[in-house]
Amino acid sequence: MSRHPLMHILHTPAQNEHPTAADVWSGGYKIPWNDPAFSKRMLREHLTQDHDLASRKAESIAAQTAWIQQTFLAGTNAFILDLGCGPGLYAQHWLANGHCYHGIDFGPASIAYAQQTVTVPEASFVLGDILTTPYGGPYDMVTLLYGELNVFPPQSCRTILHSARNALKKKGRIILEVHTEKAVRHSGTISNWYKATSGLFSDTPHLCLMESRWHEHLRVARQTFHIIHLAQEGTTEVVETYHSTMQAWSIAEYQSLLTEAGFSDIRIEEAFPGSHEDLMLITAVNG
């Protein structure tokens, strides 16, 4: 995130149409979910039942955990690792089915909420980046849902999948929900704006100007959000700029990533409920 006067936007050169991988994956390439103030606003988005932009609504979470339970975990008492767990909304469902649970997330407000609301000894939560935080284990299942993998650079994706495989028991399973290639490509073509009295980017009145780019040579979509904080009397407008970067992968490339990490029996699970046309569920087995 960068902070600058309003006139900075007018004097900023147009985005490079042919950036290198280092250009798009360095610095503030993603929204700072770990910033305490941003994390508090994001928690509101996770918990609302008005939309499912941050976390799915409660009915969808219930349907998805029931499907995974019936398909893969029936008759078992499993140890489950939830990568990018947010405020732990899946935890209660796994616990109700007799499983133990460990969640890791980057957002301090989300982890604090999870630790305050899920207090049984069979569940634990850790604040940390899933790229660098030790996973522990061994687990019967690792979940990484809602397209989280796509916001990491390619080599980081490989690291996460290798770490997940190493944290699983032999024949343990990864449940991986990813963005389709088409969805990532489309996200790089959308530009719009809105005004709000408060929201994800600010607790005060602001304008959000969003511009997007699709970089075909990298197969990367990059969205830039200019947040203009509307001036109060006696103040001037200030602009904060954020970026959100996503890597596109084809189905064959997802399969190759998982194979390279040591997984087998790779399947596209078309029956997974409560998902979105922009997402797909892939499952695979350790070994």
Automatic annotation (TrEMBL):
Keywords: Transferase. It holds the Pfam family Methyltransf_25. The keyword 4Fe-4S does not apply. Residues 80-172 form the Methyltransferase domain. It comes from the Bacteria. One of its GO terms (molecular function) is transferase activity. Signal peptide: none annotated. PANTHER family: TRANS-ACONITATE 2-METHYLTRANSFERASE-RELATED. This is Methyltransferase domain-containing protein. The lineage of its organism: Bacteria, Pseudomonadati, Thermodesulfobacteriota, Desulfovibrionia, Desulfovibrionales.
